């Protein structure tokens, strides 16, 4: 649908109806042969696999509890702040306005 939407928008710039785009996309899909649908089906399967992998990782993080992520976040923040403080103390970073 992504490619179809872009093409449809170019051909029908004044059409703002989502329903019309969806209907036209559905009609186009129905008219395609199985061979023409194959690359789209393969892309959808790949995206579905990636989505499921991401959801498993997300659910695992949720199951571990909120404390696990906070520890890493605090460490990252402190390291970034330490680097900023070092630059300020050494005087390397100065404002152009002064």
From TrEMBL:
Residues 1-36, 52-98 are annotated as: Disordered. Keywords: DNA-binding, Nucleus. It is found in: Nucleus. Residues 1-14, 25-36 have a biased composition (Basic and acidic residues). Its main location: nucleus. Residues 1-59 form the HMG box domain. Residues 1-59 bind DNA. Residues 81-98 have a biased composition (Acidic residues). The keyword NAD does not apply. InterPro entries: HMG_box_dom, HMG_box_dom_sf, HMGB_plant. Belongs to the HMGB family. This is High mobility group B protein 3 isoform X2. It comes from Ziziphus jujuba.
């Amino acid at each position: 649908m992504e490619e179809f939407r872009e093409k449809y928008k170019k051909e029908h710039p004044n059409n703002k109806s989502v329903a019309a785009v969806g209907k036209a996309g559905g009609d186009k899909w129905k008219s395609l042969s199985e061979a023409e649908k194959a690359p789209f089906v393969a892309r959808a399967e790949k995206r579905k696999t990636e989505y499921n992998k991401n959801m498993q990782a997300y659910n695992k993080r949720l199951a571990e509890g909120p404390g696990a992520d906070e520890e890493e976040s605090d460490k990252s923040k402190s390291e970034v702040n330490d680097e900023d403080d070092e630059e300020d103390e050494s005087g390397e970073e100065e404002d152009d306005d002064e």
